[in-house]
Design goal:
The complex is a heterodimer of chains A (110) and B (121). With 110 residues, chain A is mainly beta. Chain A is built from 1 helix and 10 strands; from the N terminus they run ββαββββββββ. Chain B is an all-beta fold. In chain B, 0% of the residues lie in helices and 45% in strands. The termini of chain B are far apart. Classes of the chains: A mainly beta (110), B mainly beta (121).
Chain lengths: 110, 121
Amino acid sequence: QSALAQPASVSASPGQSITLTCTGTSSALGNYDLISWYQQYPGKAPTVLIFEGSKRHSGLSNRFSVSKSGNTVSLTISDLQAEDEATYFCCAYVGSSIWVFGGGSRVTVL
Amino acid sequence: QAQLFQSGTDVRRPGTSVNVSCESSGIDLNGHYIHWVRQAPGQGLEWMGTIAPGGSHETYARKFRGRMSMTRDTATTTAHMSLQSLTFEDTAVYYCARGGRRPDSNCFDPWGQGTLVTVSS
């Protein structure tokens, strides 16, 4: 069981928006700047999308945005595309050089 | 193209150890933390540990303390991870990833291609 909770799966039709949540304790998600998001296609290594809370990795579409409310951080994908079908992981620094990942959310484009 | 290249697929017996290497090409690892992350079949990502620049300090996730070790060679820009006392539950793809220059730099980029380790009797 991960210290960061993510919904196992989310689905939507092309053109719609989806929001992936990542919920944890205040110690895990208290510092927004220490949260990152990764995208992983089946059989491939993860790649970073968002780091240090809200910084987009080079070349990332502005269809991807992040927000935070309490102990939940969210990744929103707007104008969903077929290429967005992947698994998304949140990651947080929890102190003392320790990191934790969320369980991942599989996004299905209907 | 900046990449991390990992050693190939490995099959190990329970109770033995496995070594995974991670070599950089086209990217600077010096001054950066290196992380190890694994992914069991059909499961999520699990952070295992990190080694500081120069190999001066290692931090391990609690479940791996005592049976995991990490080293790095600044001359060859290669990092190594060893996991001992393997069980069937250690079957996974093991990834290395470059971290930031600070211990709390939360950007794992790039990642190695992954090394499948299968523990089988």
